[in-house]
Amino acid sequence: MRDQLRLVAAVALGGALGALARWAMFRFSLSIAEVSWWSTIAVNAIGCLAMGLVVGLIIRGGHGNAALHAFLTTGLLGGFTTFSAFAVDAIRIGEHSIWQSTLYVIATVVISIGLVWLGLRVSVRRAQ
């Protein structure tokens, strides 16, 4: 039971910090551009690269500290990356231009998957 409470606390703390970081990125993007959806692409790309690196390190290191893994993956990066915001942005952009919305969806998916792959390759390769 005590281990479960540690995991819950780790996920909750990580989620709160990840959500705050996502909000900070959103606020920053508004200070430099009129559109906020660039922050969603940036957050998803950064989060996917970080997730690839973290998961690769977990794979390389074995099971390790379950609370740290939960904090980093489900908590911090889960709170930071925002595919729900991605979906809303795709719809809002599509209301003005289906082509821009399509480009936004394709770019986000390709960049995110590519950066998870890169993060995994970098972190696993370092172990060899």
Provide the fold topology.
Elements: H1 2-32, H2 37-61, H3 66-80, H4 83-96, H5 98-127
Helix pairs in contact: 1-2, 1-3, 2-3, 2-4, 2-5, 4-5
How is this structure best described in words?
This protein is mainly α and 128 residues long. It has one domain. The protein is built from five helices and no strands. It has helices at residues 2-32, 37-61, 66-80, 83-96, 98-127. Keywords: Cell membrane, Membrane, Transmembrane, Transmembrane helix. It is found in: Cell membrane.
Concise structural overview:
The chain crosses the membrane at residues 37-59, 66-86, 98-120. The chain is an all-alpha fold and 128 residues long.
The count of strands amounts to 0
Assembly form of the protein: single chain
What share of the residues lie within helices?
over 70%
- Uncertain regions spanning at least 5 consecutive residues: none
Order of helices and strands: HHHHH
Q: For the terminal residues, how far apart are their CA atoms?
A: 37 Å
Strand content: under 5%
Labels describing this entry:
single chain, about 130 residues, about 90% helix, cell membrane, transmembrane
